[in-house]
Amino acid sequence: MKLSNLRRKVDQLDDQLVRLLEQRSGIAGEIGRQKRDSGQPVFAPAREAELLRRLTAKLQGKMEAESLKAIYREILATGRQSQGGTRVAYLGPEASYCHQAARERFGVGTDLVPCPTMEIGRA
User: Fold this and answer.
1) Is residue 102 within 8 Å of residue 112, measured between CB atoms?
2) What does the pLDDT read at residue 65?
3) Would you say residue 123 has pLDDT above 60?
4) What is the dihedral of CA 86, 58, 23, 105, to 10 degrees?
5) Burial class (CB within 10 angstroms; exposed 0-12, middle 13-18, buried 19+) of 61
6) Which of 54, 55, 59, 113 has the fewest CB atoms inside 10 Å of its own CB, making it the most exposed?
7) 1.20.59.10, 1.10.10.10, 1.10.3370.10, 3.40.50.2000: which CATH number matches 1-83?
8) Does pLDDT of 37 surpass 90?
9) pLDDT digits (tens, 9 = 90+) for 41-65
10) What integer pLDDT is reported at residue 82 of this predicted model?
11) Per-residue pLDDT, 68
12) DSSP letters along the chain, please?
């Protein structure tokens, strides 16, 4: 198949992905409303871990599991934003190891708050 045809197919898939991600975001917003109404927290780590396990089990060798997990961390962070957001405190300044670890774990869409000491982070 010609390069131009392959790129056209990828473009079509990207268009579908955008539509699906927007649908997902709308549903995540509704989930957030129901969580608020029932007093549940926005962040559900067990649910997210189970989702990642389920999705990586579906891979058929054309994509690395860690790549899929990285993509879904951002999708999940966007979903949490749609649900009202999540605020995560980390020890140290921006660009520190803790900042990078929090960003990797919770996604760039998460409100990351630097704390100069552990005592402030507990407040």
Assistant:
1) yes
2) 98
3) no
4) 20
5) exposed
6) 54
7) 1.20.59.10
8) yes
9) 999 999 999 999 999 999 999 999 9
10) 86
11) 98
12) --HHHHHHHHHHHHHHHHHHHHHHHHHHHHHHHHHHHHT--S--HHHHHHHHHHHHHT--SSS-HHHHHHHHHHHHHHHHHHTT--EEEEESSTTSHHHHHHHHHH-TTSEEEEESSHHHHH-
CA distances from 75 to 53, 78, 89, 106 (A): 15, 5, 20, 10
> Tokens for 36?
């608020």
What does residue 84 show for φ and ψ, rounded to 5 degrees?
120, -5
Q: Residue ranges of the domains in the chain?
A: 1-83, 86-123
The length of the chain is 123
Residue appearing with tokens 């999705």: 55
| CB-based contact 75:24 (threshold 8 Å) | yes
